[in-house]
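Lecture notes, part 5. Sequence design as translation. It can be helpful to think of inverse folding as translation between two languages: the language of shapes and the language of residues. The source text, in structure tokens, appears below.
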């Protein structure tokens, strides 16, 4: 009597074990590759975020306009307000947003509640009739996951005396000559020393730039 050839139970189980080990190796390789791709993508996105923020800050601060944002107790126009974690100025935006005219821009370092900060930009449209600025959308995050950072300012006073670097800009009747934005971000990323020269200075102009009104804007404060 002949018996049909086939695999024994032991052989079948051994084959299943070998197949499971092979699939485990394949899955582990795919998982490692996926993790590498995700890490690479995150690194590229982080670098792009930092570079875009630096380019934006250089462009906007350099183009700060001599347009009043408020006034002091003597009724004198104030063109700039700066503290260690926030600053307020007027500048034109690029692209289609620039069609709305110069805008009040506020930069702030905001605690995120998790031991780090984020750099936010708030925009407001300046009505031509001198009414209070109208907020333009929600604040935009320029840089997140910031371990530490702050703003510093340098320039001259009304007598032409050079002022040392300081964490606040005391005389808003003038624009600082240099603004420094120093950030330390999470991860193995460097935020380069960012010192931005401002082109405009009320001392060199008897009238606002670009035909802008010199009437102080109520409701604009830091």
């Amino acid at each position: 009597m002949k018996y049909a050839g086939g695999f024994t139970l032991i052989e079948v189980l051994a084959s299943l074990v070998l197949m499971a080990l092979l699939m485990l190796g394949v899955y582990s390789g795919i998982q490692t590759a996926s993790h590498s791709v995700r890490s690479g993508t995150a690194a590229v996105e982080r670098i792009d975020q930092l570079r875009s923020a630096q380019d934006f800050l250089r462009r906007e601060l350099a183009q700060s306009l001599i347009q009043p944002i408020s006034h002091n107790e003597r009724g004198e126009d104030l063109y700039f307000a700066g503290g260690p974690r926030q600053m307020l100025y007027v500048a034109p935006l690029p692209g289609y947003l620039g069609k709305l005219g110069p805008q009040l821009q506020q930069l702030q370092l905001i605690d995120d509640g998790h031991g780090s900060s984020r750099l936010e930009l708030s925009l407001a449209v300046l009505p031509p009739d001198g009414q209070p600025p109208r907020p333009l959308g929600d604040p935009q995050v320029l840089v997140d996951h910031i371990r530490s950072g702050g703003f510093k300012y340098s320039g001259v006073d009304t007598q032409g005396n050079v002022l040392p670097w300081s964490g606040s800009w005391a005389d808003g009747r003038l624009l600082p000559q240099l603004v420094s934005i120093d950030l330390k971000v999470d991860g193995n990323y460097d935020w380069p020393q960012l010192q931005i020269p401002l082109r405009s200075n009320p001392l060199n102009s008897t009238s606002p730039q670009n035909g802008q009104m010199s009437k102080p804007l109520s409701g604009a404060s830091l």
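The translated text above is only one of many valid answers, since several sequences can fold into similar shapes. The radius of gyration is 29 Å.
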